[in-house]
Amino acid sequence: MKIIHVPDYETLSRKTAQLIAAQVLCKPDSLLGLATGSSPVGAYRYLAQWHISGDLDFSRACSVNLDEYCGLGADHVQSYHFFMRQNLFDAVNFRASWLPDGCAESLPDECRRYEAIIAERGPIDLQLLGIGHNGHIGFNEPAEQFVPQTHLAQLSQGTIQANARFFDSVDQVPKQAITMGIASILQAKKILLLAGVGKGEILRQALTGPVTPWIPASVLQLHPDVTVITTSSVC
Ligand code: GLP
Fold first, then answer.
1. If you placed Cys at 209, which of 4, 58, 148, 205 could pair as Cys (CB 3.0 to 4.6 Å)?
2. Active-site residue (options: 65, 101, 141, 163)
């Protein structure tokens, strides 16, 4: 595991964007695994700028996202579909991009459909991850067991509270989401984990403590090619 300490969010964003750009330049038909949340926003801004300036082309690359809230349509401003369009997709030119459909008629069928997309298009060349305050990756929440495949996740109270900052009130935060599972994440050839302000302690536990489904990010210790970019110096 490679840990890159950076002084601030700006450097974290630039470094992350550089690593994603390098992936696309070296392998133009890459499948990128993308994430939402505050952590990747700055990196997406760089990627958009580099595409607009003509320095980076995504026309042969595809993307799959980690997760989507249940019950929010693609045009809902808090949906991850909307987030990705606003922060990246509208500005760049991916050949194709997939996210789970949180409004599908049958959510179990949608989980199977999304899993099949990852299996057919995968493996993911580079998976970008953030980390939740409770150690979640995607919406793989702390639990008794790791769930390998795309599944319907019940969001923990802590995650609902943490994500309430994006909604008008905590009651509006969906209680469920569809998330890629731990096996799909671990099958990625490379993983890039971003941990900014306030994530130092959970990052330390995830990277230096036991591998346990109670801290889902701890499973990354088992992956052969993880790069962590962090503003924290605790590990
Ligand atoms: C959400 C997302 C995760 C993300 C996490 C951390 O719950 N489902 O994929 O990694 O938040 O977000 P942030 O980057 O805002 O700290």
1. 205
2. 141
Q: Report pLDDT digits (tens) over 25-39.
A: 999 999 999 999 999
Q: For ligand 1, atom 9, which residue shows the shortest CA distance?
A: 138
CB atoms within 10 A of CB 120: 7
> Global pTM?
0.97
What tens digit of pLDDT does each residue of 183-206 get?
A: 999 999 999 999 998 999 999 999
Look-up of token digits 């809902």: 76
Q: What are phi and psi of 19, to 5 degrees?
A: -70, -40
> Dihedral, CA atoms, 178, 183, 185, 187, nearest 10 degrees?
-140
Contacts of 198 (CB under 8 A, 6+ apart): 133
CA of 133 to the centre of ligand 1 (A): 9
